[in-house]
Amino acid sequence: MSGQAGGGQGGRTEVIGVVVGLFQENTFLVREPAGTHAVVIDPGDEPEKIVRTLTSNGWEPLAILNTHGHLDHIGAVQELKERYGIPFLLHEADEPLLRATPDHARFFGVPVPRVPEVDRYLNDGDLLRFGRLEFRVHHTPGHTPGGVSFHIDERLFAGDTLFFDSIGRTDLPGGDHDTLLRSIRERLLSFPDETVVHSGHGPDTTIGRERKSNPYLGTDASADSQ
Question: Does the pTM exceed 0.85?
Answer without folding.
Answer: yes
